Amino acid sequence: MKVAVLTLGCKVNKYESDALIFKLKEMGFEATDKLEYADYYVINTCAVTNEAERKSRQMVERCRKFNENAKIFIMGCASQNRPLQFGEKANFVQGVANKLEIIKHFEELGSKIYDLPTVYEDDLYSAQTLTRAFIKIQDGCNNFCTYCIIPYLRGRSRSRSIESVAKEVEKLPNDVKEIVLVGIDVSDYQQDGKRALIDLLERLDTFNKRIRLSSMEDNLIDEDFVKRLSKLKNFCPHFHLSLQSGSDEVLKKMNRKYTTNDFMNSVKLIRKYFKNAGITTDVIAGFPTETEEDFKKSCEFIEKVEFSDLHIFPYSKREGTVASKIYKDLPKSIKNERVKVLEKIKKKDKLKFILQNDLVEILVEEEKDGVFYGYSKNYIKCKLLGNFQVGDIVKAKIIEPSLEATLCEKI
């Protein structure tokens, strides 16, 4: 029997899907993460935006085109949020908890939404075969930003033990040259009730693999954390530091627990210890309370920071969040126009950041038509011409900057 496990959304979902594939193969199933003919389809859904939920529903129909008689199983955030939206289109529906349990329901019809866990579920293990491996270290979120539904779907923050993470990294094949630590709120990684992300990083630095953090919050950044981080030999200086808005008024309405001044101090601290750090961020365009003046302030602040890249999202109203209950949504045209303005800033600053770099160290991750692609330690996407192998780490100089993939030459 063949099972296709299809993933929408974040890197945490991808890790959990890979763990399911690993388990299925252990049980004798033929399993893949590709959308192709299969007897069973498992769709790991996303609910971060309305569009993500729509794509999750749409995936059911895409599966049917490959095999109209296939059995389809739904799990993840979209089904945790609204299980009935999948109706009779799926054979079985469950939520975000106990994802490996979906296998037990392969011959059933109906649904089962398990209670959200209060401790970290440490039964997931993903067999890694690529040069870069995602390692899940945390789940859940305690922040309750007014626009975000994820804390209601994923539950409260909970962390995996340092030794459990280390054991998984230790088992990785030599072909894996870089690990990316993922979670819903990696910054809140704790042990015994205390923040312990730097302790975990120091433990993982004993392995000969590049270490990258998927994202972090401003409250993680202080002198001790960044100073200890700078002493790690394998850490990749790429900080995805979530901003969301450059207006203090909007940040307050979002229930983001920092000011632009706090954020800028964190940026300065990072650059004090990491000269060419890549600092990327997320920005929401058109939050309901965002006035023209707020947006102007936000753009000015973003330009002042000079991010190496921006991930820009038009505000998406999510039923069940505080913002959806108390704020009136802005017209779509205003949100789209603000996205365009931010895209211009993004392109200008991204190119400026690339030009600030001369020499880079690239992990070669794929080859297409004789051209090799990978990322520098500070997260510049690069391309190389020549004779390389996937998995090579290449020291190179930048020849031709590009917003898509910067051309580099081995030195």
Considering the protein shown, what is the CATH homologous superfamily of the largest domain?
Answer: tm_1862 like domain
Largest sheet properties = 6 strands, parallel
* Structural class estimated from helices and strands: alpha/beta
Cα distance, first to last residue?
49 Å
Tertiary shape: globular
How is the largest sheet built, in terms of strand order?
2-1-3-4-5-6
Helix count, DSSP H or I runs of 4 or more residues = 12
Give the low-pLDDT segments. Answer: none
Number of domains: 3
What are the salient characteristics of this protein?
5-stranded mixed barrel, 21 strands, OB fold (Dihydrolipoamide Acetyltransferase, E2P), 3 domains, 32% helix, 411 residues, alpha/beta, Rossmann fold, pyruvate-formate lyase- activating enzyme, single chain
Task: Summarize the structure in short.
It contains twelve helices and 21 strands. Helix content is 32%, strand content 24%. The N and C termini lie far apart (49 Å).
Give the arrangement of secondary structure elements:
Blueprint: E1 2-7, H1 11-26, E2 30-32, E3 40-45, H2 50-66, E4 71-76, H3 77-81, E5 92-94, E6 110-112, E7 132-136, E8 138-139, H4 150-154, E9 158-159, H5 162-171, E10 178-182, E11 190-191, E12 194-195, H6 197-204, E13 210-213, H7 223-230, E14 238-240, H8 248-254, H9 260-273, E15 278-285, H10 292-305, E16 309-314, H11 322-326, H12 332-355, E17 359-368, E18 371-376, E19 381-385, E20 393-400, E21 406-410
Parallel strand pairs: 1-2, 1-3, 3-4, 4-5, 5-6, 7-10, 10-13, 14-15, 15-16, 19-21
Antiparallel strand pairs: 8-9, 11-12, 17-18, 17-20, 18-19, 20-21
